[in-house]
Each structure stands twice: as structure tokens, then as C-alpha cells.
Amino acid sequence: MSTSSALPKIIQGGMGIAVSSWKMAQAVSRTGQLGVVSGTAIDAVISRRLQDGDLDGSVRRALSYFPDQEFVAEVLKRYFIEGGKGTGDPYLLVPKLSLHPSEFASKLLVAANFTEVWLAKEGHQGLVGINHLEKIQLATPAAIYGAMLADVNYVLIGAGIPSEVPRIIRDLIDHKSTNISITVENATVKYSLKFDPSIIKGDKRTPLNRPTFLAIVSSHALAAYLNRDEEIRPDGFVIEGSSAGGHNAPPRGSSPIGPDGQSRFSEKDEADISKVAAIGLPFWLAGGYATPLKLQQAID
């Protein structure tokens, strides 16, 4: 891990669907470290908070700062229920991710990511990041744009090879249309999804601030691959050990599954930290490092 005073020593994990909520991220950020919100399925999360009545008013407060107030009115009309929905009543679902999403679906992704980041940053000057999963490619461009509209400081993406993210961020700084390749199993043609920021009404004359992009990887080989070309190079890495979560690369051993049916990781799955350090970019260690002792070991 880099020890530069300009970088946080601790990055709070972007866990699950709203496990790492704006409240957790804000609490960490206020201590001077990097608080991270989870961007996974955040459109569904925000819509359900509204249907539960948004009792503290936080979602509506954040949305009042969203640049496209005409769309905000549409969102509130569709999802907000004064006092909350009845017990046992089903939630109104958000649109499913699609290769050809409706304008409403794309705008909802933008607004939801904006909302969670805006709330995490409210009332202080600390650093806030957002975590997305590379394998949920259909949401990525709109999600990043929404976070950038809220002036997110860091974007962290793992669960895949996020080689297109640096270009997407560069495009979105100037509100330019961008695209992302979509992985389709057994496909014989290439697929991609286009995102056009012009669907969001508002002033596009001012460039957005560029967030720091950290690629979450589990091997020194992937870190070296992403570093080889400035077009795909991140600003740093989170090196994720096998105990860090459920989106790891599969075990490399000859017996990847143990008798209990769980993945069996070995030394073959451990990143060579000396090779990561030799790349020269800042990096942090994840997976069993959430103690003062492990933090000091990472710094050392």
C-alpha cells in the first residue's frame, strides 16, 4: 500500500446491495479515510426507499440537487409513497438491465448513483468512493456518470477485468457519449452498450471532476496487464485476497473444490506483492486486513 499522505490508508469495502450504504461511507469518510458506497442494484435500493416513505427525507433531499428536475418529478410520481407502502404490499420493480435500455431506465441508474454518492458526501469534505462490479456491464456507464455528477472521488471496480473503465471516465468528464463491450457467452458477434449523457437535462458546459480509478484484482498478473497500456491503466489497485468476498477469481489448484463444496484456495492464488509494488502504482491490500495489526503490516 502506498504511504503517501495524499492517499487514504484505509478503504472501507463496498459491500453488497446497500450493505455499504451512504451512512457507513460518510462515517468512514469523516474520519479522514475513504468511505465507499455500494453501487450494486442501487436503482432498486433508491426506488424501495421511496416506496417505504423516505421517512427521513434523505432520498428526496439528494434528488433535489440532481440536475434533471423534470426526471426527478417523474421518479417521485412513480415510486414515492407518503408514509410508506402497506405491509405485505409488493414493491414496484425497476426496469431490468438491458442491452437496449429505455431512457427512463438509464436515467434512473444515473439518478440513483448520484443520490447515494451525494448523501455520502453531504456536510463534510472527506473522500467518498463507489464500488461497482465489472460483470454487471449493462449498468456501468450510466452508474459511473451518476456518481461523477455527485463529484465522487474514487471509482473502484472488480469482479472482472475493468480495462474499459479509464476510457469511459475520460469520455464522461466532458459529458460525451461512451460505450462498453458486453460479454455474451458463446456469441459469434461483438456486443456493446452505448450511453449518452445528453439524456440528462442540465448544463453540460462545465467538465466533471475526474475520479481516481482503482481496479480490484486478485493477481499480480492482472495488475501488470492493466498497467501495460495507458489507455487501460488504472490509478491504482486493490489487491483482493481469497477471503475478501464472493467475487474472487476461481482457485487455480488441481482440486479447486473442497469436500465441503467450497472453493479451495492455495498459495497459487496469492498475488506476489513484490511484483505489484514493482509496477509503481499505489495499491491497497484487502481480505483479512481489517485490524490495526494487519493495517500496519500492509503499510510496512
> How much helical structure, as a percent, in the residues?
25-40%
Structural class: alpha/beta
Give the assembly state of these chains. single chain
The CATH level-2 architecture of one domain is identified as: Alpha-Beta Barrel
The CATH homologous superfamily of one domain is named Aldolase class I
- Main sheet overview: 6 strands, parallel
Distance between the termini: 8 Å
Provide mean pLDDT, rounded. 89
Strand line-up of the largest beta sheet: 1-2-3-6-7-8
Shape label: globular
Indicate the radius of gyration in whole angstroms.
Answer: 20 Å
CATH class of one domain: Alpha Beta
Task: Give the H and E element order.
Answer: HEHHHHEHEHEEEHEHEH
Number of strands: 8
* Named CATH topology of one domain: TIM Barrel
SS element count, helices: 10
Pick out the low-confidence regions: 1-5
- Proportion of residues in extended strands: 5-15%
Fold and architecture overview:
The protein is of the alpha/beta class and 300 residues long. It has a domain at 22-40 and 125-250 and 265-299: Aldolase class I (TIM Barrel, Alpha-Beta Barrel). Helices cover 32% and strands 13% of the residues. It contains 10 helices and 8 strands. The strands form 2 sheets. The protein has a 6-stranded parallel beta sheet with strand order 1-2-3-6-7-8. Strand 2 (128-133), helix 6 and strand 3 (154-158) form a beta-alpha-beta unit. Helix 6 crosses helix 7. The chain is globular and about 55 Å long.
Salient structural properties:
300 residues, alpha/beta, TIM Barrel, two-stranded antiparallel ribbon, 32% helix, globular, disordered N terminus
